[in-house]
Design a protein that fits this description.
This protein has about 150 residues and is of the alpha+beta class. It folds into two domains: about 60 residues, Arc Repressor Mutant, subunit A; about 80 residues, Gyrase A, domain 2. Helix content is about 45%, strand content about 20%. The strands form two sheets. It has a four-stranded antiparallel sheet with strand order 3-4-6-5. Strands 1-2 form a two-stranded antiparallel ribbon. The protein is elongated and about 50 Å long. The protein starts with a helix and ends in an 11-residue tail after the last helix. The relative contact order is 0.15. It is found in: Cytoplasm. Pfam families: Arg_repressor (PF01316), Arg_repressor_C (PF02863). Belongs to the ArgR family.
Length: about 150
């Protein structure tokens, strides 16, 4: 599994579970996503994510710093992300496609050549059509609220 996908899953689990230790993350990754990840890798990923331990409800749990406000808005705006062999299509909440396309344009993501927005649809033209599925998966993981188990397995 690619490190970015794994880190997105770890961040998701920390945000949605009371994760007290690395062993709990190893267990959750195995239980929910059938992933066997070594504790040493989890440790490095936690450092990369800048995870900190905080006291909440009398328990010491991991917490990830809040994501960028613009990313949060995009996550709320995106309804679905699909692709075919050459293009990625993002469905948004009504009237938000232009804002989502503008966000991707300003991010200067190397895999994105251009975007085109309608009322509730964003068309993404990949830089390399052999990487369309990978681009779609990366966008699904990063810009949708709930990671779908179908997107994490390679």
């Amino acid at each position: 599994m690619q490190p970015e996908k794994r880190r997105q899953l770890i961040a998701y689990l920390i945000r949605h579970h009371f994760v007290e230790d690395q062993e709990s993350l190893v267990y959750l990754l195995k239980e929910q996503y059938q992933l066997d990840i070594a504790q040493s890798i989890i440790s490095r990923d936690l450092q990369y994510l800048k995870a900190v331990k905080v006291t909440q409800g009398g328990r010491r749990i991991y917490q990830i710093p809040a994501i960028d406000v613009q990313e949060q808005i995009v996550q709320l705006a995106v309804a679905s992300i699909e692709h075919n062999q050459t293009l990625v299509v993002i469905k948004t909440r009504p009237g938000l496609a232009d804002a989502v396309a503008e966000f991707f344009d300003t991010q200067k993501i190397p895999r994105i050549l251009a975007t085109l927005a309608g009322e509730n649809t964003v068309l993404i033209i990949p830089t390399d059509i052999t990487q369309t599925a990978l681009l779609a998966d990366e966008l699904k993981i990063k810009y949708t609220n709930l990671p779908d188990k179908g997107y994490v397995h390679e």
